Amino acid sequence: MSELRFLTAGESHGPCLTAILEGIPAGLRLRKESIDRDLARRQQGYGRGGRMKIERDQAEILSGVRFGETLGGPITLSVRNRDWENWTDRMAVFGEPAGEKVTAARPGHADLAGLQKYARRDVRDILERSSARETTMRVAVGAVCKEFLRACGVEVVSQVTAIGGAAVDEAAIDRSAIGTAENGSELNCYDATAEEEMKIPSRSCILRICLVK
Question: Alpha carbon of 140 to those of 36, 75, 108: distances in Å?
Fold first, then answer.
């Protein structure tokens, strides 16, 4: 079997996000609802911003699948950005730029590194790709890969065990329960006490770096 690799494309406020996944063998049964379920999970959880109230992510499969079975060639996945209609003037492919330049880079993202790498002066040229929105396609690709692993008898489960120094009590975790059902946790944490400590605002810090025009 060839190696698995993928490429994502698209901007946070552009028309859509796209990914091409290569290396999935032919004959794998895919369930679109499984991909959409993982996309919906991504939009849930503690601290989600207002963007999540706008988007209702669902995957479109544009190539590599026929009647629910993979064909062996590259699989193209796409997710439409509903917020695009509010950004058509500022994110148009052609025409003149609208709106003021963004000059504040976010240190928790790749804004500053991208500005230096591509020699851009408007942070929006970079933040549209270094946005958390880009992870949408990584989730969609991961959902397809999970279907492949499931066909091989492998299930993928996870939980958050530590944030900002607050950690779960490993001895108190019933590992057989992880991944079996939604437990109502906003952080996907199976230790309710630790989860509340993880949510304390002082455990995180928001900073901005101002750039000189």
Answer: 8, 11, 23
**Whose CA is closest to 60, among 29, 105, 97, 17?**
17
Residue carrying the six token digits 């000189």: 212
DSSP annotation string for 101-126: PP-EE-TTTTHHHHHHHHT-S-THHH
Beta-carbon contacts of 17 under 8 Å, excluding residues fewer than 6 positions away, are 8, 9, 10, 78, 79, 81, 133, 134, 136, 137
Q: Which amino acid is at 85?
A: E
pLDDT tens-digit readout, 134-159: 999 999 999 999 999 999 999 888 88
- What are the tokens at 145? 């890969």
Q: Are 44 and 79 in contact, with CB atoms under 8 Å apart?
A: no
Name the one residue in this structure whose structure tokens are 């991944």. Answer: 179
Cα–Cα distance, 145 to 205 (Å, whole number): 34
Residues 6 or more apart from 23 whose CB is under 8 A from it?
1, 2, 3, 4, 5
